[in-house]
Amino acid sequence: MRLFVPILLCCVVFAPSVAQAQYGVSGDWAGTRDLLAEHGLTIDLSATQFFQGVAGGGRDEKWDYGGKLDYLVGFEGGKAGLNEGFFIDLHAETRFGESINDDDGLLAPANIAMNFPNSSSHVTSITGLKFTQALSESFAISVGKINTLDEYALKYNGGPGLGGFMNTSLVFNPIASRTVPYSAAGVACAFLDEGKPWLTFAVFDPEERATKGLEDLFARGATFVPELILRPEIFGLPGTYVIGGTYSNADYRAIDPSAWLTVPVTGEFPLETGSWSLYTNFFQALWVDSMDESRQWGLFGQFGVSDGNPNPIEYTAICGLGGRSMLGGRPLDRFGVGYFYLRLSEEFKILSRRIRPQQDEHGLEIFYNFAFSPNCWLTVDLQIAQPSTVAFDTAIIPGARLQVLF
Prior knowledge:
Elements: H1 4-13, H2 18-23, H3 32-38, E1 41-53, E2 63-76, E3 86-97, E4 123-136, E5 139-147, E6 183-193, E7 196-204, E8 223-230, E9 233-234, E10 237-252, E11 272-289, E12 292-306, E13 313-324, E14 334-344, H4 346-352, E15 361-373, E16 376-386, E17 395-405
Antiparallel strand pairs: 1-2, 1-17, 2-3, 3-4, 4-5, 5-6, 6-7, 7-8, 8-10, 9-10, 10-11, 11-12, 12-13, 13-14, 14-15, 15-16, 16-17
């Protein structure tokens, strides 16, 4: 467990002030954080530790400890006396330790956070450095190295694998995993309504750049990602509905590595030019705290279809409940229960049959996130999943996650 116990004791014993609750356990740095924020600069750090094991089935029955440090820096040009509507967003990550993703046997890993910046090494990397200029109140354009999970429009579970669900399929729709990098060089434009995007269009370099620079941009081709984002209120309850798609003109094989997936097959597969996917994702609140609209829970779903080759996943069907707890006296707790089904294409199954036979992957995850303070959470998590590899038995994956904001 290593750092789990000392950090947990620190968070339980240490009673945060209002400023510390806002900023994290390190507080406002004797007013320095407030001063920097007034001039357009914000700095946030989180540390997340994972202790998970394969209690049965999967590739290998063992326990693993690892973690992430996430560094988020924001700059607002207007507050610094520069252009109004100019923003810089930086996301750097440190990954350390071992990951359950090496042992679960799943195509879509059980711990999405530990797959980045690199799934198998101790590394620190800048995965996002985005420059944005709003040209009007209703239109903005961004360019740079874009962390696509940070930009994911459907956020119902407290963060990208750090505050809610851990399984990749319940955090990000894996139908887009063939064409969309995790860290992508590119440009995006957004049409805004009251500061929130309702229509976006992005053009990405298809090369994964989580641990790479910006050399040889668009040498392989380009990936195009349009999205329509609707935010209706149904019976007075808010919702987010996303309709989108991806198309890439790059060359792929169905077994090519993906930052999002652990492809379990190697061998000779045909090279295909171009790949596409269509998807719809949604979150609909079923309960909202009348005193705090940020406290809500509801129904979510992610559905998609693809070409089936070179994308090994033909379609996805993912649904569940998640959000903030209604338990009295525990307003910061989160919970979730979700089911995922990944239908692998018949062509991929046929091609892999003589190498390592594959089948559809499906499973369940349930978690509860206990808030010890406004900046410290302990999550208990259980996943039960049938891996895509026929030779692997159903994986039973219990685990715990400790996140601290500094």
